[in-house]
Amino acid sequence: MVRWTRFETYFFIGVVVAWVAIYYFADMSWLKIPWTPLALIGTAVAFVIGFQNNAAYGRIWEARKIWGGIVNTSRTFGMFVQVMLTNEKATVKASQEELDHEVKTLTYRHIAWMTALRHAMRASKPWETTHNEKTNQEWGLKPPERLSTLEEDLKPYLSAEDLASVMSKNNKQTALLYQQSYHLKRLKEQGLIWEFSFLELENVMEELFTLQGKSERIKNFPYPRQFASLNHYFMWIFVLLLPLAIVPQFAEIGEGFVESFPIIGDLFVWFSIPFYVAVAWTFHTMERIGRTGENPFEGTSNDVPISTIARGIEIDLRQNLGETKEEIPAQFEAVYDVQF
């Protein structure tokens, strides 16, 4: 946390040292403001920061619940397609190899859907600026979606025809769910899926559409700018005005015992530096935490690790298809203990 905010801390130290130096060496004791208006500003800023942090945490928590739902629904889907594709109602019996191929196609298309969804969630939006901050760039942390293209990531899971169809659509993840539903319909018409099983699988498709829509809602609707931007400006107004109140206050305290302890009393104004830095750092850091949590899919170190979640589901599904560890891609590595 200290390293994450060190540039702002240096700035606060420079500001307060400049104010103390001006006050002390230029004898500008008249350059001050009373505590009452500043306290009112500080109280307002504290309330708004608290509101922002609560709202930001709510967005993060909702995003995590949505992707937790995707985990559960994906496992359910993987189980359903393996046990519901049978020859029991089939007009023309299919071989076990053909059934296994259909199960694999459906499972891989679901993995492709998760891949398309996580790529869509990582797409940059104009209001997502946290990743551009210097302390978020110095470690070079990037989510996997910024290291490869969607088309490259979809190729292992889709046929050339399906891939071309998906890439021609604006909303790739929706196109994949449509493909999935049409495929299930064809299997039902062939009798490889019983009608009631088909209805259950369509209910799973509906749930996936619901979870996708909830995830897209958080991604595409930012935290209202009238709260975020004004709060940011109010915080800086408070922080920059604070030395005009705190420095004279420490000087006044020093004047109270300058006769008993002349050296300490004369220099006591310099003790305002650590106190100011502590207060300014606290307000700024709390406001920055709120800004960082506004967009839980942006792809920074504090966001929901949807790439790791999606890859974890893929590993589970492919293991249950009977694939070996050599065939299944490894989990995305954590960088500096950060999962994406």
How large is the share of residues in beta strands? under 5%
> Would you identify the regions where 5 or more consecutive residues have pLDDT less than 50?
none
- Could you estimate the helical fraction of the residues in percent? 55-70%
The H/E string reads HHHHHHHHHHHHH
Count of individual domains: 1
> What sort of overall outline do the alpha carbons produce when their principal axes are compared?
elongated
Counted beta strands: 0
Characterize the biggest β-sheet.
none
What average pLDDT do the residues reach? 88
- What is the gyration radius calculated from CA atoms? 29 Å
Which class best fits the helix and strand makeup? Answer: mainly alpha
Number of helices: 13
Distance between the termini: 19 Å
